[in-house]
Amino acid sequence: MKYFLGVDAGGSKTYAMIANEQGAVLGVGKGGNGNHQKNREQAENSLQQAVSGAIMASGLTKPQLEYSWFGLAGADREADLRILRPIISSFGLPQTEISCDTWIALRAGTESDYGIVLICGSGVNCAGKNPRGVTYQCGGFGYRFGDYGGGYDLSVEVFRSVLRADEGREKETVLSERLIQLLGYSSVSELREDYLDHSRDLSPHIAELLFQAADEGDQVATGLLNKQGDELGLAAAATIHRLAMEEHSFDIVLAGSLLTKGDRSGIIRRAIEQRVKHTAPNGTLRVLTREPVVGSVVLAMESSGMRVNQEVLDRLSRGMEGL
Q1: What is the tally of helices (H) and strands (E) in the chain?
Q2: For helices 310-319 and 292-303, what crossing angle results, to 10°?
Q3: How many other CB atoms sit within 10 Å of the CB of residue 61?
Q4: 8 A C-beta contact, residue 92 and residue 122
Q5: Side-by-side strand order, sheet with 283-287
Q6: Which letter does DSSP use for residue 14 in this model?
């Protein structure tokens, strides 16, 4: 029997999963931030914690692992890989591969060998692979480098909108009351003064306030979510054009917590679709329903020469239910 390790490391959580060649999940481990661009030491500790937890839960030893695939947020460039390779090598696993987390999400979300993936979690990213195997990544480096959105950016937008509404520079919004309740202030003025006096970070979870407010018809919240969708659609359209996929039929996998869990009413999704359909009318949006770590295990299996059938994929998916 052969055994495989898959890892999904994002900006807020890290999952590691070990499964056998039949898709039976033998062990799962968890950690915190796994993105070295945010905090290298923290990411290394999270990866070590998740991998060790999965191995311990499985009852296996490291030499028994046939292949391990690490899908890591922040594994974008060769400069990143020069940092990450020694970290992964220090784990003492027999055969390993590192990729950006976009590729494991794409593999988990489509049965095709090619397609587009959009990630909108704590940050955003977009990548694609065409039928010839050519790949392209659009963004993933933050607001200063052309991105827009994800939990961190949208939380800032919520904060700004509330302050602007209080000053009369923005429409009134239910976000004002929701934000001060969430952060524990009695008024927007108190919030403003405290943040001016102290350097405080904004949690990406503040962005979650947008969805309920938009469902209630709040124009400010709806506008921000529409902008998020349009920006993601622009990234997808640019990737499709760069890969000359305009005439192809393919899946556009939507991954990341704001797309898979937050956008239940579909405001972001509809804005993405509206933008993408102008470029690639045969592209089909598919919300990722599996944990991305399933994609990393599949890639580990395929790298060892296995052909992964639907039965194996279904077993892997069931093994991660509830996370």
Answers
A1: 12, 10
A2: 140
A3: 9
A4: no
A5: 135-138, 124-129, 115-120, 250-255, 283-287
A6: E
Three-state DSSP class for residue 210: helix
Q: pLDDT digit string (tens) for 25-43?
A: 999 999 999 999 989 999 9
How many Cβ atoms sit within 10 Å of the Cβ of residue 181?
11
Task: Say if residue 323 is exposed, middle or buried (CB neighbours under 10 Å; 0-12, 13-18, 19+).
Answer: exposed
Token pair recorded at residue 139: 């963004």
DSSP states of 121-175: SSSEEEEEE-TTS-EEEE--S-GGGT---HHHHHHHHHHHHHHHHHHTSS---TH
What is the DSSP-derived secondary structure letter of residue 232? H
Does residue 71 come out as left (phi exceeding 0), alpha (psi in the -120 to 50 range) or beta?
beta
What count of other Cβ atoms lies within 10 Å of the Cβ of residue 44?
20
Q: How confident is the model at residue 323 (pLDDT cuts 50, 70, 90)?
A: low
Q: Alpha-carbon distance 8 to 253, whole Å?
A: 16
Delineate the domains of the chain, giving CATH numbers in brackets: 3-105+290-319 (3.30.420.40)
Rounded CA-CA distance 264/124 in Å is 18
Size of the chain in residues: 323
DSSP SS3 for 322: coil
Are 294 and 103 in contact by the 8 Å Cβ rule? The answer is no
Contacts of 269 (CB under 8 A, 6+ apart): 229, 254, 259, 263, 285, 287
Count of C-beta atoms within a 10 Å radius of residue 189: 12
Residue pair 118/259 in contact by the 8 Å Cβ criterion: yes
pLDDT in tens, 149-193: 999 999 999 999 999 999 999 999 999 999 999 999 999 999 999
Half-sphere exposure of 216 (CA within 13 A, CB side): 12
Cβ neighbours of residue 265 under 8 Å, at least 6 residues apart? 211, 214, 215
> What is the CA angle 15-21-25, rounded to 5?
40
In this structure, what DSSP letter does residue 245 have? -
